[in-house]
Design brief:
45% of the residues lie in helices and 23% in strands. By secondary structure, the chain is of the alpha+beta class. The protein folds into five domains: 164 residues, Beta-Lactamase; 153 residues, Beta-Lactamase (2-Layer Sandwich); 103 residues, PAS domain (Beta-Lactamase, 2-Layer Sandwich); 67 residues, Orthogonal Bundle (Helix Hairpins), CATH 1.10.287; 148 residues, Heat Shock Protein 90 (2-Layer Sandwich), CATH 3.30.565. It has a six-stranded antiparallel beta sheet with strand order 3-2-1-6-5-4. A hairpin with a 6-residue loop joins strand 2 and strand 3. The radius of gyration is 50 Å and the shape is elongated. The two termini are 98 Å apart. The protein binds adenosine-5'-diphosphate (ADP).
Length: 697
């Protein structure tokens, strides 16, 4: 602290000179105001105080109190009583000398005075938008010399106001520079991400810092129901733990702002009827003051932004202007982020559909190179990704006797009509390795808004299975017709012979009738099998879950089979465990499974032996039916259980059948949670392995 020679004759002029020398280099408000009090006390040996009110409001005075040779102390006066004392002293804005008894008691000013108080108002004209605070300087018990020249004191006040004004302006200039830097930083960040959460997280701290507020909240209007939904991530951790805060349209300050499309500054929310206290109740957060601005995009309110609880003093127009300045770019960023999110989710949806389709799909650019293809296409063509993507379509889609480019030319000129089925289609064979696969290609052009062709989408359906089913169906009809025709012709023949007479020959008549009966039985068996197959296939088939005694099933089947085999000179040997555990299922189906397999063994074995085994092992019953029959060609094994399948070994040997039995067997086994496998060597024999699960209890 500088030591100053105290002179009781110090005049206002001396003070003027002293203060102007000491404070001319100080540029911040705190330094100037504190300095004035300090230097006056030191120079005059009197207590003094400088006080300045809030820049944008009127709710407090900052006061710097000094006593000779003591450190200056700073106080913020907010209570109404303290403020009233100052306002009373400032009443007529005149420099005056008043007596202690004229001052309201019980406050800092009263306490510093012994007898008289020199009151010097500090007041400034308005500078455009800049609001300069009001101030006051008081000197307690000043010497006569100082008090003698109040004109000089007035000059002193002018000099002091200039110093303070300079400091305030420089503070405001600095603040504006900071605000400008922060707003441009916010704008930059708004453009740096398209993720809403990211955007909010990035700007929230900056806005809070700039406005000096405790919290910032952002509510977006749900375009479906008009409710305002606040984003918890932005509001602080407590909001993450409570239900998301939502306001009905038109309720709360946010609802009012959204409805009226204008900002609101509320410095005491609990006294504002628009304020909805519910969110404070749920969160435990205490809202005191708030600025709420609407977020507008193309004239439409998309949400609101609220700055909550200003830390120092009240919200003013300046804060509102700042928040409004940010609201524009923020609205645009929200709209962009939403658009982006929609585009991304649409893209994901299309990609998922693209990938999940069982048909092969590919897109081709204007240069005929393949831009995208799904997994089904790779599987269909047995190619890897790198052999398809980026390659020319003519290298990937090699067609037999047709040109893919001609088809694409047709697709590229196609204009959609209201008939979907109208899309160009091509039935052809595509090369896969060394073979050709039958496929149907459908094509659609993708155009820009101006109609220019962007790409072509091709959907490739594999017709191999359909063709196979068609082939099997044709075979089946042939077989059926053949199978039905033979017994029918026999029946007809004997019936006619019986009709013609010769009925006296009883033995002959009996034989004819017996033949008719046998053939009718065969016909009936075939029809029954076909009906059984249809029933097993239908979705209405519901397997009953009853315990089935397998020994009982074998006992019923084996004797007749043994007889049939014996007639052919084939032996049947069995090793069936006597106490097979019961399995759960439908007896009729289990019977059909075992009967069909043994029946086939007998049917397709011309000489030798048939071995039927059944035993339980741990959780399963294993059944094995092996024969020394004609066998099945190796290349036919994959189709063995297919519907209508008949191996050429069986057909060539003229053994009758429908090709439905094994298909039914497999379906029946699987419906019981079991498994079936076959092993065969052409000309040597065949073995079927079946397993059924044993219920755990
Ligand atoms: P079907 O016997 O009426 O023709 P299946 O579906 O029972 O029909 O059998 C399909 C085909 O599988 C038969 O046509 C035959 O070619 C072959 N097959 C089935 N079981 C045997 C077997 N035990 N030995 C040789 N071939 C068999």
């Amino acid at each position: 602290m500088a030591t100053v020679a105290i002179d009781m004759n110090t005049s206002a002029f001396d003070l003027w000179v002293y203060l102007s020398q000491n404070l001319s280099g100080t540029l911040d408000t705190h330094g100037v105001c504190g300095g004035i009090s300090q230097h006056i006390s030191d120079f005059t040996n009197c207590k003094s105080m400088t006080a300045l009110n809030e820049i944008n409001g009127n709710s407090y005075f900052d006061a710097w109190l000094s006593a000779p040779n003591q450190k200056t102390s700073q106080h913020r006066w907010t209570s109404e009583d303290d403020l009233e004392v100052i306002h009373n002293l400032l009443e007529d804005y005149d420099i005056k000398i008043i007596q202690k008894h004229e001052i309201e008691p019980n406050n800092a000013i009263y306490d510093m005075v012994e007898e008289t108080l020199l009151v010097v108002p500090l007041q400034w004209p308005k500078h455009g938008n800049m609001i300069i605070p009001q101030g006051i300087l008081v000197v307690a018990d000043a010497h006569e010399t100082l008090l003698a020249d109040l004109d000089m004191v007035s000059d002193l006040a002018t000099m002091l106001t200039t110093l303070i004004e300079r400091a305030v302006l420089s503070f405001q200039r600095d603040r504006q520079a900071i605000e400008f830097a922060i707003t441009s930083d916010i704008s930059q960040r708004l453009n740096s991400s398209l993720q809403l959460q990211d955007i909010f997280a990035q700007i929230s701290d900056n806005i809070k810092r700039m406005l000096d507020v405790e919290s910032l909240s952002l509510g977006l209007i749900n375009q479906n129901n008009g409710r305002i939904e606040f984003i918890p991530q932005l509001m602080g951790t407590i909001f993450l733990e409570i239900p998301r805060i939502e306001l009905e349209p038109g309720t709360g300050i946010a609802g009012w702002v959204a409805d009226h499309r204008q900002p609101a500054i509320i410095n005491d929310v609990y006294n504002d009827p628009r304020f909805s206290k519910n969110s404070d109740k749920t969160s435990g957060f205490h809202t005191r003051s708030m600025i709420c601005v609407p977020l507008l995009q193309e004239g439409k309110v998309i949400g609101v932004m609220q700055a909550i609880n200003k830390r120092n003093g009240d919200f003013g127009n300046h804060d509102k202007a700042l928040l409004e300045a940010i609201s524009g770019p923020l609205s645009a960023a929200i709209v962009n982020a939403n658009l982006h999110e929609n585009v991304v989710s649409e893209k994901r949806r299309i990609e998922a559909m693209f990938q999940s389709m069982s048909e092969g799909l590919l897109t081709i650019g204007p240069d005929h190179s393949i831009t995208q293809a799904n997994d089904s296409l790779m599987t269909l063509l047995t190619l890897r990704n790198d052999q398809v993507i980026g390659n020319n379509v003519t290298e990937v889609m090699r067609l037999k006797d047709q040109d893919i480019l001609l088809f694409m030319a047709e697709v590229s000129t196609y204009r959609p009509t209201d008939k979907l089925a109208d899309y160009p289609q091509l039935l052809c064979d595509v090369q896969v390795g060394n073979v050709y696969k039958p496929v149907m290609i459908s094509g659609a052009p993708v155009r820009e808004d101006d109609g220019a062709l962007n790409e072509i989408v091709l959907v490739i359906s594999d017709l191999t299975d359909i063709r196979e089913v068609e082939r099997m169906r044709d075979n089946f009809f042939h077989t059926i017709i053949h199978e039905l025709r033979t017994p029918l012709a026999t029946i007809l023949l004997y019936a006619r012979m019986l009709l013609k007479g010769n009925l006296n020959d009883e033995e002959k008549t009996h034989r004819f009738l017996k033949n008719i009966e046998t053939e009718s039985d065969r016909l009936q068996a075939m029809v029954r099998q076909m009906l059984q197959h249809a029933k097993l296939e239908s979705s209405e088939f519901k397997r009953s879950e009853l315990p089935v005694n397998l020994n009982g099933v074998f006992d019923e089947i084996m004797p007749a089979m043994r007889d049939r085999a014996r007639e052919k000179g084939v032996t049947v040997v069995d090793e069936i465990q006597e106490d097979l555990p019961e399995i759960l299922g439908d007896r009729e189906t289990i019977y059909m499974i075992i009967k069909n397999l043994i029946d086939n063994a007998v049917k397709y074995t011309l000489e030798g032996k048939i071995q039927v085994n059944a035993k339980a092992k741990r959780t399963k019953v294993h059944i094995e039916i092996a024969d020394d029959g004609i066998g099945i060609p190796e290349q036919a094994m994959p189709q063995l259980f297919g519907r209508f399948f008949r191996a050429k070994t069986a057909v060539e040997k003229g053994i009758a059948g429908t090709g439905l039995g094994l298909n039914m067997v497999k379906e029946g086994v699987e419906k019981h949670g079991g498994k079936i496998q076959a092993k065969s060597v052409e000309g040597k024999g065949t073995t079927f392995f079946v397993e059924f699960p044993i219920p755990s209890d």
